[in-house]
Amino acid sequence: MRIGLTELNLRSAATLDEALEILRDEPRRPVAGATDVYVALNFGTTTDRKFLDIWALDELRGISASGDSIVIGALTTYTDLLRSREIQQRLPMLAAASQLVGGAQIQNRGTIGGNVANASPAGDSLPVLFVAEAVIVARSVEGERRIPIREFYTGYRKSVLRQDELIVSVEIPPVTGRQAFRKVGTRAAQAISKVAFAGVRGPEGPRLSYGSVGPTVVRVPMTEQALASGAGIDEAAKVLATEIKPIDDVRSTGEYRMRVAANLLRWFWKETAQPQH
Amino acid sequence: MNFKLNGATVNVAANPAARLLDVIREECHLTGTKEGCGEGECGACTVLVDGAPVCSCIIPVGQVAGAEVTTIEGLGGDHPLQKLFMNEVGAQCGICTPGMIMAAMTLSDKPTLDEIKVTLAGNLCRCTGYGAIYRAVLKWRGMPVPDEAGSAATA
Prior knowledge:
The complex is a heterodimer of chains A (277) and B (155). Chain A has helices at 16-25, 37-42, 78-83, 85-90, 92-100, 104-107, 112-118, 126-131, 221-228, 233-243, 254-271, and strands spanning 9-12, 29-31, 50-53, 63-66, 69-73, 135-140, 143-148, 153-155, 158-159, 166-172, 178-184, 195-202, 205-211, 218-219. Chain A contains 11 helices and 14 strands. Chain B is built from 6 helices and 5 strands, in the order E-E-H-E-E-E-H-H-H-H-H. In chain B, a hairpin with a 2-residue loop joins strand 1 (2-5) and strand 2. The longest helix of chain B has 10 residues, at 131-140.
């Protein structure tokens, strides 16, 4: 670890109420499965020194139904998602993303709330949440806010989540149509994406989302609109090229990402051409 | 704080923010668990917490309070899979071996080669090409060894 242990302070909360009171009183970065926070500590890439361990808050675990929606507790791990029949049946794209997020070691610790809060443009579950039009439920001592995921991120690793708020759940409304998820990285699991993609092909037109092609995960409404109004896939790919501006970084180049993004669009359109049985 | 390490309760003085890996190696003096990448990608530091594989390099020790932690030493040093890793040359440089074996402990009784690949997907080996590792695991579980797992390291 690059950061001296004596500098670090990890306080743990036993209940959600206690956690929210602690966050009201002082800024502390929440730690759930630690799969992002501890990587940042190991490499010295965070200035945070005070943390709040929320791993023990069992009230934030589990998958339940609320009306037509699925409510996923913030501490639900990828392993929990993979094992859930509800998720397998209703959100196969989320099961697919969970399978590829890392090996069993990461699936056992990484949480959906952590993936959302970490605000990385490469967060694997995020394109899925964007096309599912998920709602992020955040709570503080003052009450609860429900934030559509499209309004959640404001820039690279920035979100509207306040320092005194904790993500408590992710609500997913019913999704109609064929779903797909793909992640392109250096290998199947255990690699940060070069490009991630989720798509739903429903009766009102497709919903498409990309990760790692900009400062935040994005939907591509112009490309969606083109396909919904009957444009051919070549034309849609041209629209996509005007709509995203991937950059060069340590993992890939902008040019490669653009090409992969277009290939994923073509793959999705072909893969979902036949109606579901 | 207390946790169970290989069946015995240990009381550690470490800062709760200390990495589980460092506490196991430096305070509990069990150095079988290795550090590889330090970012949860290579799986070399894999231990079991309440039976589930995790990367001990990215877990604060405070999160295992009261839990049961099993390291490679917990297998007793004479485990059949350890011997098979030797006999099949599933270990070359050896850094990945303890983590690989701990991850394999979570396999079902009769795993297929595909299940083994998925279970060990979080453990990287840069020496063997995996063939010898898969073969060791298959033989341990009494499963037939398909050609694709048998070709490497037999020459």
